[in-house]
């Protein structure tokens, strides 16, 4: 079933992986990246990010990120998210 809404989609990607070191974003193994999912808005992405970050809190090298894909798809867009 497809859910449609009048609300504008602002796509966000949540992913994470283990970093080589804590000083920069360089992943140890790109084949082991955890692609959590795509979300239609920042609030949904933030909820997913918090959940994954909490699950991996014991591993200091594990980091999760939210990518604002809508900004990449339309760089001229002035979105608040």
Would you mind describing this structure in some detail?
This is Inositol monophosphatase. InterPro entries: DUF4170. Pfam families: DUF4170. With 81 residues, the chain is α+β, with helices and mostly antiparallel strands. It has a domain at 9-23 and 38-75: Alpha-Beta Plaits (2-Layer Sandwich). Helices cover 23% and strands 23% of the residues. It contains 2 helices and 3 strands, in the order ββαβα. It has helices spanning 42-55, 69-73, and strands at residues 12-18, 34-39, 62-67. Strands 2-1-3 form a 3-stranded antiparallel β-sheet, with helices on one face. It starts with 11 loop residues before the first strand and ends in an 8-residue tail after the last helix.
Q: Which tags fit this structure?
A:
single chain; 81 residues; three-stranded antiparallel sheet; alpha+beta; globular; 3 strands; Alpha-Beta Plaits
In short:
The protein is 23% helix and 23% strand. The protein is an alpha+beta fold.
